[in-house]
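Before surveying the methods themselves, it helps to consider a single example record, giving the amino acid sequence and backbone structure tokens:
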Amino acid sequence: MFDVHPIAEALGAELHGVNLCEDLSSETYSEIRRLLVKHQVIFFRDQDISRAQHKALAESFGPVQTHPAYDTVPGYPEITILESTAEKPSKIEVWHSDMTFRKHPPLGSVLRSKICPPEGGDTLWSSMTAAYNGLSKSMQVFLSNLTAEHDFSFGFKESLAELGGRERLAQAVADNPPVSHPVIRIHPESGKKVIFVNALFTTKILGLTANESSEILSFLFGHVITPEFTCRFHWRPNSIAIWDNRSTQHKPINDYFPAHRLLERVAIDGDKPY
């Protein structure tokens, strides 16, 4: 059905032979989902989809979420605008999984490029499945029963510190108190174990001393970005990335200032990690 080109050993594949502008069959959607779970992040090129088609593609995986802090496309509150300009450069520079500050973090996201810088602006993804498998058995056992706290306010501390930021984000802060998730979660479709802490939103491991928590998290944040666990994608206009937020982390590379970069994202609702 698809021509599948893996781009790294740990994760990532480009899919060719499908036009996402056309009406897709349930069999095609099922195959896209199967390949997503297998490769953890999948990419499409030259897909000039409309915003309605973008939303529909995300909804083929399930209900979609809105983001409490980012601007959205007029008429499409589900489509988040991710834009960096010379006047307002991107603030996100750390590895993360999306919105783990929620009780039900996203299953995944569908990200579409609109404007790309002439060079730079790539995105990195890392496999939390490979990262878990790269731990010693003793460390896997130690982490297996631990729980960590994830906090919206911690992840958006720079925005909150801006002039008027605390007022602008007051409702988001109120609606998103800290939540806890297992440090090691089980992927609900593959059944594989993955590391589920990230440097943007995870603040501490519960039940450990502050020093113990800091040392363990520091180790994990460094471990999960081991180059052998990663892949890299170079954006061109009308490229699409769909990633499994349950089993990956990602990082935009902000090496294109002051060039303009504009992407639009729809996040797919997920379940409670276990």
